[in-house]
Structures are given as structure tokens and as C-alpha cells.
Amino acid sequence: MTNAPRAVLAANRAARLRDFAPLTALIVLIGVIAAFAPSFLSVSTMLLLGADTATLFIMATGLTWVILLGGIDLSVQSVASLASVVLAVAVSHVGGLAIPLAIAVGVVAGAISGFAQDRLRIPSFITTLAVGGIAAAAALVLSGTRSVPLPPQAAGAVGWITASTVGVSHVIPIALVILLGSLFAERRTVFGRWTFAVGAGEPAALVAGVPVGRVKVGALMISGALAATAGVVLAARLNSGSPTLANEFLLPAVAAVCVGGTALTGGVGGSLRTLIGALIVSVVRVGMTFVGVDVFAQQIVFGFVLVLAVAITIDRTKIPVVK
Amino acid sequence: MSGIAPPVLSLQGISKSFGPVVAVRDVTIDIRANEVVGLVGENGAGKSTLMKILSGLFPPDAGEILHHGRRLQLNSPLDAARAGIGMVHQEQSLLPNISVAENIYLGRETRFMRGGTIRWKAMRDAARRQLDRVQIAVDPARRTETLSFSERQMVELAKALTLEEETDGQIVVFLDEPTSVLEDAEMRILFDRVRALKSRAAFVFVSHRLEEVLELSDRIYVMKDGEVTAEMPTAEASVERLYHLMVGQQAHAEYYREDRQLPCGAEVVLRAEGLTLPGQYRNIDLTLRAGEVLGIAGVIGSGREALTRTFAGLAPHAQGKLTVRGQTVRLRSPGQAVRCGIGFVPQERRTEGLVLPMSVAANMSLPSLRRFAPGGVLRSGRERQVAKDWVRRLTIRTPQVETSCANLSGGNQQKVVLAKWIEAGMRVLILDHPTRGLDIGAKEDVYDLVRDVCAQGVAVLLTADTLEETIGLSHAILAMRDGAITQRFDAAPGRKPSQLDLIRHMV
Amino acid sequence: MSAPTTVAGPAPASARGSRRAAGVQLRGLVPLGVLILLCAVISVMAPEFSSLGNLRRLLSAAAIPMVLACGMTFVILLGSIDLSVEGVIAVGAVILSLLVANGVNQNDFGLVAVPLAILAGAALGLVNGLIHVHLRIPSLIASLGVGFAGIGVATLILGGSAVPVTDPLVQSIAFQRLLGLPGIVWIAAAAVGIAWLIQEYTRLGRWTYALGGGEDICRLSGIPIGRVRVGVFTLAGTFYGLAGALCVAQFGEGQALIGQGFLFTVITAVVVGGTSLAGGVGGILNSVIGVLVVTVLSNGMVLMGVPPEYQQGVQGLLIIAAIALSLDRKRTRFVK
Q1: What is the distance of C-alpha B82 from the center of its chain?
Q2: Which CATH number belongs to the domain containing residue C95 in this structure?
Q3: Which residue of A has its CA nearest to C331?
Q4: pLDDT, tens digit, for every residue of B179-202?
Q5: Which of B247, B263, B294 is the last residue of a domain?
Q6: Which pLDDT score is estimated for A6?
């Protein structure tokens, strides 16, 4: 209530920063790399970058829905790994149906997290941590703790994912379809509007009659579905499923969402920003590899990029006590 | 009796504004040693701002605070503690999960430390001595949440009195609405203690329970609209006189658009029979007709807040029968209330009324979003058009319908809240302090709107900031006390009850 | 602006107070009851459970989670969370393994390296706390970032390989027996003792409870909230650093992923012990029981022939069950 004008001004300033900083950063990063290696701007490199970003982007898009609500999904990497194992194991039995089956497993994982959050009133970071543990265990049990290669007969059922048409890997159009679907859901559906309303002001959304619990479950189901989709794409690209396949994905995925400008406090952001965030993460990774930064040291950089992005984007008026 | 003593604490011309809102204006108050000063005023009169200034939470814009005649600068709660200013809050300021002794000495543990560790025995002994002085037999090692409410209040009192150990002069203890949740016997004990402790400290008793203020205080200050409007020895005060000073003179009938108060319809849209929520309200019977404004009058703790939230779907009733438009329901969620045609205009406009960061248009369409999305696809053009219509009809001052509600003034925000419910076709509106924090012009707009919706057959359940607002707007008024309805008043134009009529059944 | 409005106001209090008191006491005993029941069931189904050798194995397995829980308990008592556990363990382990006699370089500093590993943990905890407090971002994210950075640092130093430790003294920490129990168990017991003393007898410990109970009131009482928070995260890092050193002793090598799985185990243990994620309720002794529950359960599953890969899943269910049974849900209407 106090100093409303100043708070509003600060909020507007933060909003402007959130709006333009990510895109500017992306352009600057690409410019810097291109200055050192002009071939970076070639079509083939760009397509490769796109294909490499696709998996991360798909997972981060799902996560975006949960973060828009002010929650978090720590289960995405385990769910993706589980989906890859389900795909690898099931494809020899049911062929192409293994793909929807793997995605359905992700939906179920999200639904369990969601119901635990809504009905049992457990914060999402704990329910998803726990469900992540369950998913990891399921993947280990199902795979016999080993990596499961895709059988040769899977080429027809799964191979189309990684095939190319006129030099464009199919994972790029897959990611684009997911982007468009997510954008449509955000901007033109009741569920999308409800998501923003709950994230921006849960008490008011509740009073306005928004089914808050169902929205939360729905967002976690989307996150589970897209994490599983990312797992399927990853398995197709690596030609195997494994219980540790997506183990290094959680941090880059959270980083992609936050760097893109979706605030951890909810209500601000969206999948277009996440696309930019995912591209930044990819470009930074390429750039670091190019400069010779060790793959493992990149985790350090992402850790701090994440912290910085969150520090810039969160709306502190919504969390009087930062815990 | 203490008229000749020099003031322990003296406020000289204290003023404080928040943006354009003046919370406290030129307040001068003296608190002398060994006296109990009553401070009365309605919600929003500036009492709590004054107490926050004296707690060191924020500095006054103008004026000064004299402590035993010396100027006192309060920059933090610690400064206030060092000056011997203690607070006993209504929403208690004890941590539930630690022991009584720790609560009493919270933040001041240093003197019980030796070699980096806390000597529990010393702390508990010290705490026990303090508890003995307010005559309460509580083990200082007990977890605070295991105490009863009145025991905790005594612990708070003991905690405030330990400030003696910090300061040379006499201490001043503010009792902020201490009695509103106490049983009668518990209140007697508190009063006895305060009288007994007068020899050691000065007390400021802040309350709107006027009879209790009259009983306990030696001298009384009355605040209204941020100013001290009167000061008198208790001998010269009476409930009627104080109340009159607190609420000011009668407003004109036109102010509340009484000429536009139409007789209400016959259709009963909401009926409660024997509605009960233990600890909050009991045996509530009421009927609400189409086009009627039903006011509920009662002090804090009368149960009217919980009753309001029951109809909004935020606090389901435990027993009794609730019928909304012919259907018996128990409202478990606001979503269910909305489906029954009940819209809630909450007191917390900025958190519960509006999704503040979202646009005017998005807020207006939120409860009826499905209607804007035939086949599941939002028609944002239609949404914008509808919002524009409302902006024009209600003269909402906003640059665009895409503007975030955070950028609107309070009055315009409230109009958006009302527009969203009218747009959603609600048949019942629950208005919870609908004019809180609004300036006079905006208030009048809200009154006009209330008359408009009633003319269209919407029923309104009103809990208002002031009694005069309740009287002016309502067709009928229910007075509540201690969780029960004590009297029903008819309030047709020209036959409105007086404030004193209502007060008699409220306190 | 304002906290979510609670519907249930202060009700007629005396009856409610005493009923609540009884509830608090009963609830405190539940984890202990679960532990006893668990032990009873397992020893019936797998009689070798109660053999001396198995009990020794059990306590050894509980040692490292116990040391970690000493740190994590304070963080959760604040109402915060610390996801940096595995990263800090990695840094502590790698530093220790590279400073004592090992198979990679010529260093041989002996047990002097142990305090250095602990110090490194404290430093990471300090960074964690400073980021959380001074950038004002939730501890969830600050510690997620610091944890990954820790694993990155450890991997960077080692280049992804493992360092075999040849110093016999380090090994002896884990296996040298004293009064029939391995050294690591005694170290864990000492850590619990220290943590308990800090919790009960220092201002840091008491203020941790106070902050968990309500930060606004603490601010009014003049408690240096930021310093307490930074202090707690530093303390937690110290314990994780020690745990990293113990990992080296137990596994005989140092590597970046040496701490994998411990985060999950320790959060489960603390929560199952009855320390509330909302802060302010629980403590070290709760965590001792929690760690024992988790360890007995996994030990029992091994004895009953359940493959180890089921562990994480069972722990996941355990977390949800423990919280669902313990949270005072009336107070948390808006769950993010």
C-alpha cells in the first residue's frame, strides 16, 4: 500500500528489463561469436543450433507453465529419462504406439505431482522432487539399471523424429509445433488465461471463481507431457533410452525459462520468452565450447546465470519474506 | 488524579501521509506517568498509524516525540524498546513455536549468554519473575502455542513490562484492542492487572469498545479522520458522546442516494436458517430479496466478517441451511458461489478483488471467461469491446482497457471489480467494505452503482466501514454481537434507524 | 501486500490451546513409533536384521546422511530449502582426495586436509547464503545454482575421473573401530552432539527457530535476520563439507558425483523426522530418527531382497506421505 507510485515505477522498470534484455543478450551473444567465427552465421550451423536446442526448449516450455503459476517442477529430468526408457522398452512390442505411451507416462507423473500439491497441500518443489525420485526408480527398474538401445525395427516407428527433410532435422518443426501450440494455449484459451491469473494473483483468481486446483494440476500435466516428449526426442537422437539420459537437463531448463524472462514468482512470461532463453543457453554453451571452456565448467556458468536471471526477474512485492 | 505529573511521552503535532492519503494529521497527545489513557476511533481513524510510528516502524513526516521532555528519534523497533515503549498487539506478536521465556526476551538474549551459550536457567528465572509480577502461573519453559489466548495476552503484557529493565524512566504500554477476543472473565483479569500495574507504567488503551474504555481509562482521546477531535477526562465522557465524536455529524440523505432507494422485490434470492460456524457466528437467520440492500452492523469479533466470507464461499458453514435461489447449498469454494450467482467484492481489493498485474479487460472477463471463449478459443476482440463498454458506462478512468489494474486509482479499481460481477450476471453481490480507502467522489460513484444494480434486481449484502454508510444504503439492517444477530431494523427512506439505535444492539 | 487471509480467526482459546498442545506432543512421537514399528516388522521378516553385524552396517550407512541432516535441519527450520548438498559434498570430497596421498598427484598433507575440506564446504554455504539474502532470491534457486556450480567445480578439477585415495589414515576414519563401532559412526554422533548444542544453546540456534516461527515478529524484536540466514547456510555447508570428507573415507576415492542421491535421502530423512517444511518446528533429534527410519527402511529392503533401484521410489513416496500427514494445512491456503 505504501509508496504505491514508486513500487509501480520500479515494477514497470523491471518489466521493461524483462522484455528486452533477453533478446538483446541473444543478439549480442550471437554477434560476439560470429565476430570470432564468421561461419557461425551459416545456415547449416544455425540449423544445427536449432536442432540442438529443440530438446531443451521442449522441456523448458512445459516447465514454463508451472513457473507461470509460481511453482516449479524438479521432476522434468527424471520424467524425461523415464519416458526414454519406456520408449526403448515398448517400441519393440507396440511399435509407433510407444511414443504416445511414453508421453502418457509423463502426463501421469505430472498428474500425481499436481494432485499431491492440490489435495495434500504440499509445495510443488517437494511433490515434484518426490515424483522425480519415483520416476527415476521406475526408470531404473524398467531398464534393469542399464541403457536400453532402440531395436533396429524401431527405425520406422521412431526414426522419423530425427530424419531430415531438405536438410532440416525434423526435431525443429516438432519444436515449432509445440511452440505454436503453447503460444495458442497461453493467449487464446481459457486455461491459458486462468494460468496467468492464478500466477499473478491467486487470491483474486480464487474469488473470481477460477478453479485454481485444476489449473495447477493441468500445468503440471503439461510439464510432464512435454518433459516426456523431450525424453522421446532425446532417445531418438541418441538411439537409446537410459535411466540417466536427461540427467544434466534440469538446470539448463530452469535457466532457459528464467533467462527468457519468465518470473519465478508467477504471472509473467511465456513460451516465446522460453524460446529465447533456450537459444541463449544453447548459444552460451556453443560459445563456451568454442572458447574452450570445459563442458563441466559450463554448469558453473549456468548456475550463476540462473541466479542472476532470477534475481532480475522475480517480483519481490509478491514475496514479503524471501525464504 | 495524575494531572500534575509530567508527561512520560508527548506527541507534538505528528503528521504522516502515504502518497496522497493523509493517515495522521497534526496529532498532539500527552501520556503521563501512572495513568491509563484511552484512545478511541473508528477503523481508519489513524490509531494504528500512530502506533506504528511509536513502534519505530516508520518516522513521522512532521512533528516530534518527547520522552520525559527530551526529543526522541525512533528509527527502529529497537529504539522504541530502549525508550520503554511496549506494544501488546491484538494479532499477537508472540512466536507460537518457541518457549514463553524465549518470547519474553526475544532479541535480547545477550545478557543470558556466557561463553557463547545461553544459560537457560537464568533466562527462565528472569522470565518467571516477570510472569509473577503480572500474576500468571505459567511455566516459562512451555511452548507458547500450548497457552490459552488470554494466557498469551498476559505473557505479552509481561513482555512489554520487561522493558523496565531497558530504560530509566517509566515505560508506556500500548494495549491494542486487547479485549476483542477475550471472554468476559478474562477481560476482568486483564483490567485488574492493568489497574494494579499502574504504579509501574503508563498505559494507552486502544479500543473501539467504548464501555470498556470508559471503565479502564482515566482520560480519553478521540480520533477521527487522522486527527484528534477531542480529549476529556473519563468523568465527562459517555458512550453516546464518544460515539458521536468518533463518527461525526449525520450526512445528508442525498449523499447515500436515498431518493433512489426503491422498494425491493418479493423474490427471496438468499435465505439462511440457523446458520452456524463454531467460534465465529451462530443461529443466523436472514433473507435477502432481489433489489434489496441488507446491511450487517457489528464490531470486530461480532462474526460479521466470517458470515460475509461464508456467503462468498471462503468459509463454509458448519450447521444450518443456506438456500440460494431455491437451491440448498453449502458453499465450499468461491467458484461454487459464483456458479450460484454470488459475487464477492472483498475488502482486500488489491489482493482478492483484482489480479492486479492483469489488464482491466482481463479482470472484467475473468469470472465469465467461458462466455468469451465459444469452442474454447478466446475472442479477445469481444472481450475488449465489452470492457470498453463498461469503461464508458461506469466512467472508469484508464488510458486503455489493456492497462494493468495496478496503474488505476482505488476508486477506478473498485469499479472494475463491480463491472466484472455485473458482466458475469451475478444475482447477489457481497460488498465487504466497498468504499474502504476511497475518496469522497469515488465513494459517491460506488453508491450510485449500488443503486443501479439494485434497480436491476440484484441483491446486495453490505458490510460497510461506517454506520452512517450502512444506514444510508440499506433497506434493512441486522445488528450482530458476539456471533449472533441481536436485532433487525427496517431502513426504508425516511424511517431509517439512528446510529445509537444500532450501537445499543452492537456493543 | 498482505498475507493470505486466514479464515479461522482466534477462536475461544483455552480448549483449543490444550487440544493443540496434546496434538503437538502426539505428533512429535509419530516418527519414533514408525521407527520402532519398522524395526519390529523387518526383524520378523528378515531375522538377520537384528544381528550385531547388520546393526553395525546400519549405523555406518546412517553416518553420512546424519551429518548432512545436521546441516539441512537448520535450513528447513528456517522454512528454507538447500538443494546444494550434492555439489558441496563433491567439492569437499575432491579437495580432500587431492590433498592427501592419492593416485593422481604427489600431495600428502595427511589429515590436515580434512579441515580444509570442511572449510571449503563452509565457504560454499556462505556463498549460498549471501546470494540468497543479498540478491533476495528464494533459497531454492540460490542453492540449485550453487549446487550445480559445486559439481561443476569438482568435475573441472578432476576432469571427470575419480581419484583413488591411498592415505591409510583417511580410510581408517571410516573403518577403524572404537568400542565396536567404526570411526565414521562416532564422527556422526559428534556432529549430532555439536548440532544439538548449537540448536539449544546458541543464539544462532534459537533465532533459527524464531525466524521459522515468524519473520515479521523477529524483525520487530531487532533480530539480525540476514546474518542469521547467512549463518545457517554457512553452518549447513560446514556439515556438508564434513560429509564430503567422510564420503572419501568410506568410498576410498574422490569424484564429482560421489554425493549423488544424498540430497534426496537427507530431505526425506529430515521431513520424515517431523521437521516442518514451513519452518520453526522440529529439530536435530527429529532428524536422527528420520535418518534412522530411512536407513532402516533401505537396509531392510536389501535384506528382504528388494533391488536397490527401488530405493529412490520408496523415498519419494515416503516424503509425500510424511508431509501429507504432518502439515498443518489450515495455515497454508495458497500452495505454490
Answers
A1: 29
A2: 1.10.3470
A3: A121
A4: 666 667 777 888 888 888 888 889
A5: B247
A6: 52
